[in-house]
C-alpha cells in the first residue's frame, strides 16, 4: 500500500435505519441515515481479469456498513464516521483509503433543513521507525518493541532490517547501541503514533534523564509518507536522520530508494554522502 491509487468505487446514499444521536429518544426509536463511501483501491487486476475476487465487492461493503451501524449506537455522527471508517479499512482487503459521509435527514433541531452530515477521509499511511537500544538485552528489547508495535490496533509491521552495532551518538561515554529500522503501515496520525512509541518505550523501562544518554529502547519516527511537519514534540522527517549512519544503514536495507521530501535525495544517496 505504498503507491498512490486514484481508482474509486462509489456507494451513494445507502439507507440505514439506526439508533445514533445525542438525545435518548434517538437511541431508542432510531431514524434514517444516508451513507456514502468512496473506496480507493487498485482496480487494474479486476479490470483485466473480470474477476470479482480481484476487486472490492461493493455489495459486501454495503452489507457491512448496514450491519455495523445497526449493531452500534453512537451519540455523534463524528464518532460513527470515525469508527466505521476504521472498521472498513481494517477488514476490507485492498482498501487503501476511504472517503465516508454520513447524512442525517431527520436531525432534531426544530428548524427546516434537508440534511446534516459529517464527511471524513481516512487511509493507510507508511511510516519508517528507527530502533535502538544500549542497555540490558538490547536485541530482545528491540524484538519486543517490533512485536508490540505490530499488535497496536491500526498498525502492521511490513519489514524489519537486520540490526547493526554502532558507537554512541552525542554522549559518547556509554555502551554501544544496537540499531535497526522497520517499515510500518498505520492508520494512526503522527501524534497518535508517537504516543504509542512512547508507551512501548516506557514499558521497556525507558527513562528520559540525559539527552542522547543510555536507554533500554529508543523509537523514532523517521518518515511518515512524504509528510513535512513539526510541532513542539515531533519533527517529520526526523531532523537529524540524514546525518546519522546508524539510521541510514538499516533504513537503506529496507527502503534504499525512499526519497527525503525536503532534500530530494534517496536514503541510499544520503548514506553514500556520509561515507565520502
TrEMBL record:
Pathway: Cofactor biosynthesis; tetrahydrofolate biosynthesis; 2-amino-4-hydroxy-6-hydroxymethyl-7,8-dihydropteridine diphosphate from 7,8-dihydroneopterin triphosphate: step 3/4; Cofactor biosynthesis; tetrahydrofolate biosynthesis; 2-amino-4-hydroxy-6-hydroxymethyl-7,8-dihydropteridine diphosphate from 7,8-dihydroneopterin triphosphate: step 4/4. SMART domains: FolB. Residues 211-222 form the 7,8-dihydro-6-hydroxymethylpterin-pyrophosphokinase domain. The keyword Signal does not apply. Coiled coil: none annotated. CDD domains: HPPK (cd00483). It catalyses: 7,8-dihydroneopterin = 6-hydroxymethyl-7,8-dihydropterin + glycolaldehyde; 6-hydroxymethyl-7,8-dihydropterin + ATP = (7,8-dihydropterin-6-yl)methyl diphosphate + AMP + H(+). One of its GO terms (molecular function) is ATP binding. GO terms for biological process: folic acid biosynthetic process; tetrahydrofolate biosynthetic process. Pfam families: FolB (PF02152), HPPK (PF01288). Its EC number is 4.1.2.25, 2.7.6.3. Keywords: ATP-binding, Folate biosynthesis, Kinase, Lyase, Nucleotide-binding, Transferase. Signal peptide: none annotated. Catalyzes the conversion of 7,8-dihydroneopterin to 6-hydroxymethyl-7,8-dihydropterin. In the N-terminal section; belongs to the DHNA family. This is Bifunctional folate synthesis protein. It comes from Candidatus Mediterraneibacter pullicola.
